[in-house]
């Protein structure tokens, strides 16, 4: 029997969420695992996906299952639940890859995802058990790799990879192109949901299901577009578009936006609807950008009357009042704008664009007015943040009183311009993957000129509890979503994250 060509592993990032992992954090399908699986299957290769988050194998089970499948290539797709989490997700990925290599040194192990895109050479140096790293999204390089005999001579000729030769030397080959817009449907034909565990096994974040736990599954996330045209300092999502190996370049240099034809995407949504999925996360970094793309997709969803509950990201300066009625009709019940900072100067400093001209209060009010819930994103420790400006961010959050608020500390993520800046300024950078996990015990955020990492992290955790325990917020939630939602939030805020740098 012909050997399985590729086993795609979605590693588990469970350890990064502390006690929140039990009941609160989402379990998302690994979309990039699904995209790469479909691309390689279409190119004629045999492929399976193994999701460690769902299967939760121990070391023995995992190495046994690898032995059973005995693939030509084992590919760890390390994207995290959103691309900003790739570096933190490396923790679980390298642990399990090492299990495999120790058990069977001849297994060929590849890694793909934003972290290795950003630091290919460093990653191979750090982990002897990784044989091949992909230096961008990896579609073409992966197909070229599988088309080869996987010998050292073959690997030398493949663009878009770095690899370790038989003597242990590391080579970075020429970069590879990414799939162009006009070839997306052919060369990256959507997510192979059929190769994943049942979508009933996945669950969305509790706030997305209006804080009602029983409604969290089945759940699916999907990309309808890739990348973003903007160049925010703290963001590394465009590093998957890397087409130049120069290590001084960062995500902001590869700010490309591509989208699948809505007529193509709707077929994926048809499939999800048939599986009984109502909870959908549109994971696009920049969904609300090109009306021909997202409004056309809304029309197609509305025609089908799927009654989806959709969550999507937007920038505060790309969402317009004229879009809202259609978004709501398509089931977009949650929009997640990146508000980032309360202080206009800080926002201007870190988000390149016309963001500073926007009246945030007005935009959030307009979204709420349309009956769409707002899950606002805030970041502490941006640019030249000091105590006054991070307090402004918290004050703005409390004033806006949105139905959900994600609060993070700015972290110098590999691939972001901030990472290069921190390196150039000689700032302390995390030395362990877990330190990049926003909610992890080991989290080490970036400092600013005026605040230490400890000060920022302490403030973030204080801000989180201040927000979610605020009686005004709880009253609003009670009126909208009822007592079960209050119970859910109360249980969540009982969990106090432990933080190593704060002495826990
Ligand atoms: S707008 Fe969002 S996705 Fe785009 S670069 Fe800024 S943070 Fe990243």
Overall mean confidence score, pLDDT = 93
Number of E-state strands = 15
Q: What integer value in Å does the Rg equal?
A: 22 Å
Strand order within the widest beta sheet: 2-1-3-4-5-6-7
The global form is globular
Total number of distinct structural domains:
2
At CATH level 3, the topology of the largest domain is pyruvate-formate lyase- activating enzyme
Hetero groups:
iron/sulfur cluster
Largest sheet: 7 strands, mixed
**Share of helical residues:** 25-40%
How would you describe this protein?
The protein is of the alpha/beta class. The chain has 2 domains: 169 residues, Cobalamin-binding domain (Rossmann fold), CATH 3.40.50; 236 residues, pyruvate-formate lyase- activating enzyme. α11 packs parallel to α12. It is globular and about 65 Å long. It starts with 5 loop residues before the first strand and ends in a 10-residue tail after the last helix. 53% of the residues are buried. The model has no long low-confidence stretch (mean pLDDT 93). The site of iron/sulfur cluster has 11 residues, from loops.
Short description, anyone?
By secondary structure, the protein is an alpha/beta fold. The chain contains 20 helices and 15 strands. It has helices spanning 20-23, 31-42, 52-55, 59-69, 86-103, 114-118, 120-126, 139-147, 152-156, 184-187, 262-274, 291-304, 321-329, 344-350, 360-369, 387-400, 417-425, 453-468, 471-481, 483-494, and strands spanning 6-10, 47-51, 73-77, 109-112, 132-134, 161-164, 170-172, 219-222, 225-226, 258-259, 279-282, 309-315, 332-340, 373-380, 404-409.
């Amino acid at each position: 029997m012909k050997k399985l060509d590729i086993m795609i592993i979605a590693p588990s990032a469970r350890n990064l969420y502390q006690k929140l992992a039990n009941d609160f954090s989402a379990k998302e399908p690994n979309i990039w695992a699904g995209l790469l699986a479909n691309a390689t299957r279409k190119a004629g290769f045999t492929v399976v996906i193994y999701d460690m988050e769902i299967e939760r194998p121990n070391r023995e089970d995992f190495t046994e299952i690898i032995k059973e499948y005995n693939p030509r290539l084992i590919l760890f797709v390390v994207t995290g639940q959103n691309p900003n989490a790739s570096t933190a997700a490396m923790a679980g990925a390298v642990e399990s890859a090492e299990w495999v290599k120790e058990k069977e040194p001849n297994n060929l192990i590849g890694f793909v995802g934003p972290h290795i895109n950003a630091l290919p050479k460093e990653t191979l140096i750090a982990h002897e058990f990784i044989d091949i790293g992909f230096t961008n999204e990896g579609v073409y390089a992966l197909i070229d790799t599988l088309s080869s005999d996987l010998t050292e001579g073959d690997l030398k000729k493949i663009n878009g990879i770095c690899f370790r030769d038989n003597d242990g030397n590391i080579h970075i080959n020429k970069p590879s192109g990414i799939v162009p817009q006009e070839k997306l449907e052919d060369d990256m034909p959507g997510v192979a949901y059929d190769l994943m565990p049942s979508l009933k096994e996945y669950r969305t974040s509790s706030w997305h299901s209006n804080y009602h736990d029983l409604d969290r599954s089945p759940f699916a996330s999907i990309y309808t577009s890739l990348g973003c045209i903007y160049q925010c300092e703290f963001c590394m999502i465009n590093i998957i578009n890397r087409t130049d190996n120069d290590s001084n370049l960062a995500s902001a240099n590869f700010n490309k936006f591509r989208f699948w034809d809505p007529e193509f995407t709707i077929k994926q949504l048809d499939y999800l609807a048939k599986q009984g999925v109502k909870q959908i996360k549109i994971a696009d970094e920049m969904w609300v950008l090109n009306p021909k793309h997202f409004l056309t997709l809304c029309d197609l969803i509305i025609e089908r009357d799927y009654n989806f509950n959709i969550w999507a990201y937007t920038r505060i300066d790309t969402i317009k009042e004229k879009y809202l009625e259609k978004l709501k009709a398509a089931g977009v019940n949650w929009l997640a704008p990146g508000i980032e900072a309360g202080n206009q100067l800080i926002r201007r400093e870190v988000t390149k664009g016309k963001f500073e001209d926007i009246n945030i209060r007005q935009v959030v009010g307009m979204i709420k007015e349309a009956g769409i819930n707002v899950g606002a994103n805030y970041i502490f420790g941006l640019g030249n943040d000091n105590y006054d400006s991070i307090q402004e961010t918290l004050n703005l959050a409390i004033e806006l009183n949105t139905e959900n608020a994600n609060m993070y500390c700015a972290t110098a993520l590999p691939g972001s311009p901030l990472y290069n800046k921190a390196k150039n300024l000689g700032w302390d950078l995390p030395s362990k993957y877990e330190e990049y996990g926003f909610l992890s015990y080991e989290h080490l955020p970036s400092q600013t000129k005026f605040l230490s990492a400890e000060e920022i992290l302490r403030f973030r955790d204080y801000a989180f509890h201040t927000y979610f325990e605020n009686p005004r917020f709880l009253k609003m939630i009670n009126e909208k979503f009822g007592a079960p939602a209050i119970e859910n939030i109360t249980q969540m805020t009982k969990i106090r994250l432990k933080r190593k740098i704060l002495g826990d």
